[in-house]
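Need residues for this backbone.
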């Protein structure tokens, strides 16, 4: 190690990768591979103690708390209360274990423990969903009363349709009352949600496709959920153009700033000024490094199917938000609905990065990331709960014109897929083969012409030798 004492952590990592993989540039310390953003040095993270998990400290505090509850606190006689407290304590102990012992993900800011915490929350939420899935419909809905006694009661869905006039001439006092009625708390929620989704996906086209597709799904499923019944201008003007479009625009501007930002970090205690320290603390909540997502869905069949799968999971997670409220009798403004959205905001970015790494470099990332795996499992489990708890609503047949539109769209997508990745490739290979054959024939023809134009002239056959001329003044022969 003495010969590498002056190298930085990136050069040491590149050198180690060269020894392990036999990469020539890495072996020589000139590696050009993309390094993960979760490996900052201690000085760049703000100090040597910041990157430690503090496993012994957490274990000591946890043991002291459990000892206090066991030895100094009298156990109440309320069975329901003890059950709730025991479940909460079990979850907290698991979270403490996961935060200190779980494997780090691709993100390291603001701290790796933050992302380990949400990974463990994903496990707890998936286990909760599986428990709900194995209950009867009535028991599952009444079980939520243990979380909040106000739950377990059927709630009517609000109808956002009705009078769709933008300007109501019959209402002299406020002709735009229909517009003002739609401007509720969900308008800023739509904007903020799509701003964060853009930061996750990092692609304008994919975000726009998901936004427009979800409005089509609302049109198609309004016969199942009254909540989807909205006015046309509410769908396309307020949602797609104003809330979603403005959120996507602001998200893309933020991505542009993050991609142009210089990522050169300095330890907090190495900054001399107070203003510099405050700025460094604020930038701790920005990425350690930046990776630009280039999905390129049309480059190969594997990437095309992966992008289609990502869009499908996004749409399914959006639909689960409304269907879970419907089947579990959750009011739209309940804090459980808000907590679920906060949960997906925190785990969605990590899952998208792991999916992109798995799709972009399968040789380096041989398996799907742990957070992406959990997000896919949670989405599927939520769908199964909806199917089990209210199969009647889901089996309501689509209107004929709606089914025709979805059939036509599916056929067009399937036709384009077959043409792009099968027929087009066959045609291009056939044209390339013909071009190579014609080029080969042309080269052979030019070679023959070249040989014919430069043949050597045939030599004259040997004949009788001509007499040499007589030299001047020489005697004539006899």
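Answer:
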């Amino acid at each position: 190690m003495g010969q590498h004492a002056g190298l930085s952590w990136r050069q040491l990592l590149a050198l180690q990768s060269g020894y392990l993989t036999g990469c020539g540039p890495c072996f020589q310390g000139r590696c050009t591979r993309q390094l993960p953003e979760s490996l900052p040095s201690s000085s760049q993270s703000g100090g040597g103690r910041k990157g430690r998990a503090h496993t012994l400290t957490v274990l000591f505090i946890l043991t002291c708390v459990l000892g206090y509850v066991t030895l100094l606190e009298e156990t109440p006689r309320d069975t329901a209360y003890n059950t709730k407290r025991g479940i909460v304590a079990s979850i907290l102990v698991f979270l403490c274990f996961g935060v200190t012992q779980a494997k780090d993900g691709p993100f390291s800011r603001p701290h790796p423990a933050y992302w380990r915490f949400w990974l463990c929350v994903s496990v707890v939420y998936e286990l909760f969903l599986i428990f709900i899935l194995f209950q009867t419909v009535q028991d599952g809905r009444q079980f939520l009363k243990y979380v909040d006694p106000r739950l377990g009661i059927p709630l009517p869905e609000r109808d956002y349709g009705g009078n769709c006039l933008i300007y109501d001439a019959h209402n002299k006092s406020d002709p735009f009352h229909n517009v003002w009625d739609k401007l509720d708390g969900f308008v800023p929620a739509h904007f903020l949600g799509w701003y964060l989704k853009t930061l996750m996906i990092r692609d304008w086209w994919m975000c726009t496709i998901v936004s427009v597709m979800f409005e089509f799904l609302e049109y198609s499923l309004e016969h199942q959920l009254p909540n989807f019944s909205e006015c046309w201008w509410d769908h396309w003007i307020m949602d797609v153009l104003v809330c979603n479009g403005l959120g996507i625009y602001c998200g893309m501007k933020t991505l542009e700033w993050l991609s142009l930002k210089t990522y050169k970090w300095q330890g907090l205690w190495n900054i001399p000024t107070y203003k510099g320290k405050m700025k460094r603390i604020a930038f701790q909540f920005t990425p350690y490094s930046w990776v630009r997502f280039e999905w390129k869905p049309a480059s190969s069949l594997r990437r095309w199917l992966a992008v289609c799968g990502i869009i499908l999971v996004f749409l399914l997670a959006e639909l689960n938000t409304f269907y879970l409220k419907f089947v579990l009798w959750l009011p739209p403004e309940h804090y459980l609905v808000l907590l679920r959205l906060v949960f997906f905001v925190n785990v969605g970015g990590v899952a998208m990065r792991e999916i992109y790494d798995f799709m972009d470099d399968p040789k380096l990332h041989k398996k799907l990331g742990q957070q992406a795996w959990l997000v896919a499992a949670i989405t599927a489990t939520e769908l199964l709960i909806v199917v089990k708890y209210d199969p009647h609503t889901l089996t309501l047949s689509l209107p004929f014109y709606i089914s025709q539109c979805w059939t036509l769209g599916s056929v067009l997508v399937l036709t384009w897929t077959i043409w792009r990745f099968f027929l087009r490739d066959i045609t291009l290979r056939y044209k390339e083969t013909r071009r190579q054959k014609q080029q080969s024939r042309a080269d052979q023809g030019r070679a023959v012409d070249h040989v014919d134009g430069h043949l050597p002239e045939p030599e004259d056959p040997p004949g009788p030798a001509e007499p040499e001329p007589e030299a001047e003044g020489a005697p004539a022969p006899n």
